[in-house]
Amino acid sequence: MALKLLSSVTFGSLALKNRVVLAPLTRARAGPSRLPNELMLTYYEQRANAGLLITEATGISEQGYGWYGAPGIYTDEQATAWKPIVHAVHTKGAKFFLQLWHMGRQGHPSFHAGETVAPSAIAIPGEGYTRDANGERVQYVTPRALETSEIPALVQSYKHAATLAKKAGFDGVEVHAANGYLIDTFLQSSTNHRTDEYGGSVANRYRLLKEVVTAVGEVYPYDRIGVRISPNGMYGGMGSEDNDQTFQYVASELSHFKLAYLHVMDGLGFGFHGKSKVFTLFDAKTHFQGPVIGNIDYTKEMAEGAIRSGTADLISFGRSYISNPDLVERFTNDWPLAPPASHEIFYGGGAKGYTDFETYKPQ
Fold first, then answer.
1. pTM of the model
2. Which one of 39, 111, 182, 199 is most buried, by most CB atoms within 10 A?
3. pLDDT digits over 318-329, tens only?
């Protein structure tokens, strides 16, 4: 029986050659220039066997940037540098979305000569570390709470980044609202203690995401916009007692936009915060009336089951795509997967551990 995972599919105006998605993976190969480069072109072109590729998280502004070696999408130069990468992916018949990223409290002020911002002045708990603009290991800082008056300009920075993504030729964009970055910290009650119209009730905490999607919708049609959430994750010190209810609301409200998809990090492979009930793909499908992408630790068999059961429409693969650039061919031919890559090569460096993984050679 043919794998439904490998079947073509059309959602609105988005036609995909299969239901396999390259998950956004921060690989930090852009270097201090923050410019996409030839090495990144090779990396994405190698993995354009997926129906849809989503770029690594890409900084939307000076303020939002904060990961050493990550690319940006807030200058014309950056947009121009993305163009040949987009062309290479399109030549392979895949669609390409760019992920819009504001790091919030996980950033470091050295990157933008200013303060790190968040919904509230709440630091990441514990002894967490990041890298500064020189690539040196430093502790996270306590962020400054954004003033209400600053939020309209913040929303416009997402629109500006989307405009540049469109200029670069991307088919659409994904709004990063996961993993403890800025929008996620607005959504969750444990990190949002605001008393204005962006805090308190779940409707208020959702307001920023709603405004961002609305603004980006002035650049791309809504069926070319996706949103990524991580209701179960603990990365970045996240997790709230009301997450199951919060993200049911978020999924339901996002349905009104008729988005390209809702990308749910439903797997527990990065750790489960344990503060509320697990938010499942079934929950997502129940409350979001549109295509759903499942993510984290899916095998081929698990992905096929999720799609055939109707709880997901596509599945994104992350770590398995790092060491298996020919992942779709391996799925198609039932070839074994290469061993998982060492975590040491994930973030930064050159071609080693990035573009030097071999395709499968049948005996």
1. 0.97
2. 182
3. 999 999 999 999
